[in-house]
């Protein structure tokens, strides 16, 4: 039995979009040269690159939901060039430089698509802040500065008064600004890329695949009302890769949550007093992510949950408690905006591994996958999806060699119930330690 995505329907990014075009679903037998499962950042990039390699091939891209309803449309809207905090601590400088190069290649690819197709997604090269609330956060910030010096990347210290003028709150002591990151509206970006796929890519949405079978040298993707047959299958399914029997007991499903306000009025914006269109991530990784969007919305993201049944692990009572936590974080930063309501609270599922290793490569004959982005999906999904297509068609490149060198096999997890107990305990402990940074 395949456990399908079970996302809530209150993602603010998605609800802010205009209505989607009529859906095209999988019906009957569809024969293709390549099948790509999952239409998030990785799947979209893989399908596009396959089409570039083979413009005469038929490529079928299938998703269980509408494009942008899943994890790729639910993140906080950062596209980050720097390696993740844990990866920054890798002892090999060459390893970190490879990650940096891959992330920047992804940003260049996304930037080119946004400009070429005129995708309206608040795409902006404004960098990002990493902020500290108290002494614990400042200790993490000092460590981050040390890592940036080792990496040889530009950064700038932002002290309290300057930071307060940007954020419209004096809640943070200081921050480090790094210039290479981008901000965007993730659901708008993902939908825009899907609307501008090459002509030889056919997108089928709301078409859940229930099982995979190998027959006569072809992979059969079996859905409710049809199937896709193709000799080569690329999986951009992230955590759901394990539902098809691959990487079993190696991926951990974690959900993180966000809430945002309606757009601020002119009077509220005057009381806020800060700038528009910035993003701040916490120096303490278990702290709060904060954004002011280009269209005047304040977004709060924190709260992590182990979700073995994905969205089915979260009920309305838990969502209300999470929103209350977000409200507390919002009021601590913006008490002068106490009357501004949250309009949406949502969660998104992603895959992490215990050894913080991303999987990239061939799973078996004719099956390729990029899985486990460890929480940095926009850039990693884009570049890993593109390079997965290169691997599938046999196109060699320096970047393909780089991604093969920085990825590996996620480590095995302990069996349940020990896994769930351990993950929940780790999340609870991190929240307690980081309570001053929330």
TrEMBL record:
FAD dependent oxidoreductase domain mapped to chain residues: 33-391
Origin: domain of life: Bacteria
Gene Ontology MF terms in the entry: oxidoreductase activity
Gene Ontology terms: cellular component: cytoplasm
Keyword RNA-binding part of the UniProt annotation: no
Keywords carried by this UniProt record: Oxidoreductase
PANTHER family named among the record's database cross-references: FAD DEPENDENT OXIDOREDUCTASE DOMAIN-CONTAINING PROTEIN, SARCOSINE DEHYDROGENASE-RELATED
Protein name: Oxidoreductase
Protein source organism: Oceanisphaera psychrotolerans
